[in-house]
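chain below, 117 aa
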Amino acid sequence: MEEKVIERELSFAKLTIKFTKVGKDYHILLQGGDSSHIGCTVLALPRPSLKGDGRPGSTASVINVTGHKDEYLCRYLAEKMAASRNATVVCTGGFHVDGITEEQIGEVQRAVEEIEI
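prediction:
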């Protein structure tokens, strides 16, 4: 994968995630809703399992823009890809919809969780 774009039409908005290979590492750009923006940046690094079960894990550092709630989405993607690809991953972006409901937030989270990495 040099570059891959995944678009999901949600019931109320569109979600776009762009994966770009950078050497042996990856950059992920997440955007969508009424106004795309950068609300969060996550740097994830692969590491051995902390549970001792042999499954790879990852550790993340997060920078949030004050008042933004994009961390869950970016952190989920960055940590999952870092562990599965044994690579350094940066995920940045934001998803914004004015007046978003709890149900809609859940829909966005599920859409991100269902993406194959």
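The beta strands are 3-9, 14-22, 25-33, 40-47, 57-64, 89-96. The two ends are 11 Å apart (CA to CA).
thats it, cya
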